[in-house]
Amino acid sequence: MTTERRNYGGRAALSPTVRRTVVAVPWRVFLISRTLVATHRFQLGASVIFAAVALARVLATELPLSTGGLYALMAHSIEQNNFALPGRIPYYGPGGIPFAYPPLALYVLAAASRLSGLSILTWLRFMPVIFCALSLWPTYRLYSDLLPRTWMARCATVLFASAPAWLALNLWADGSVRSFAFFWAMLALVHAWRALATGSRGRFILRVGKPAVAGRRDRRAVLANRFGVATDLRSGAPGSGSPRT
Questions:
Q1: Which residues are CB-contacts of 76 (< 8 A; sequence separation ≥ 6)?
Q2: Which position among 99, 115, 126, 237 has the lowest Cβ density within 10 Å, counted as fewest Cβ atoms?
Q3: Res 129: pLDDT
Q4: Averaged over 77-87, what is the pLDDT?
Q5: Which of 94-103, 108-117, 140-149, 229-238 has the lowest mean pLDDT?
Q6: CA distance 244 to 95
Q7: Is residue 46 within 8 Å of 161, Cβ to Cβ?
């Protein structure tokens, strides 16, 4: 694609190819967005409603809810170290503590703070809401594959999204890393189920590997991921037919 400009009467004009691209890209984005809304109404609606309710609670306070100071300090250390992995974290005991922690979610937190100009404490308030809302998409997909009726999958997703145990672990400030891990763990479970349902064991390893590695943050999330995958392997392929989309 050429990006040359031609000079017409002293004014620079874009070439016809560039002009067509400028028109085509927004139109293509519109078509994709319309298709996404039409085919994923429930997931989109559930995520928006969940985020609105959660944000109402988050915005009622000026500081992050619950604990999360260690995660904020780790993300701050990463940002101050120009995104090189710090060796130690200060203020925790004599000489600090080693940075022995899976850092991907903390890098996301630090990058969000650097790019947006907002403080890490601000992102501790909003990052759990974002990833909890996003997690409802793979959660619904998993339920829709496991349950025989669409209304059952929707009811299960609503019950899951309102479960106090899940909210307590993922929605508060320390959920800035737990919700991130949970999102990738659910993606891994969805891909694991679909790969096994189609009988593709090689694809199972490839499809589960990347989300599972990305989500290795919280021990409970990792154990839940492994338990789900191990259960599927023991029971074999869940069916001969393809999963419902």
A1: 110, 120
A2: 115
A3: 92
A4: 90
A5: 229-238
A6: 54
A7: yes
Size (the chain), residues: 245
**For residues 15 and 4, is the Cβ–Cβ distance under 8 A?**
yes
pTM over 0.90: no
Average the pLDDT over 198-207 and give the result: 57
* Whether pLDDT at 26 is above 60: yes
CB-count burial class (<10 Å; 0-12, 13-18, 19+) for 30 = exposed
Residue with tokens 């915005």: 59
Q: How confident is the model at residue 11 (pLDDT cuts 50, 70, 90)?
A: very low
CA atoms of 142 and 185, how far apart (whole Å) = 12
Amino acid at 174: D
**DSSP secondary structure string, the chain?**
----EEEETTEEEE-HHHHHHHHHHHHHHHHHHHHHHHH-HHHHHHHHHHHHHHHHHHTTSSS-SS--HHHHHHHHHHHHTTTSPPSEETTSSTT-EE--S--HHHHHHHHHHHHH---HHHHHHHHHHHHHHHHHHHHHHHHHHHSSSHHHHHHHHHHHHT-HHHHHHHTSTTHHHHHHHHHHHHHHHHHHHHHHHTT-HHHHHHHHHHHHHHTTT-HHHHHHHHHHHHHHHHH--S-SSPPP-
CA 60 – CA 63 distance, rounded (Å):
9
pLDDT beyond 80 at 189: yes
What is the rounded CA–CA span in Å between residue 66 and residue 70?
12
Q: Write down the mean pLDDT value for the chain.
A: 75
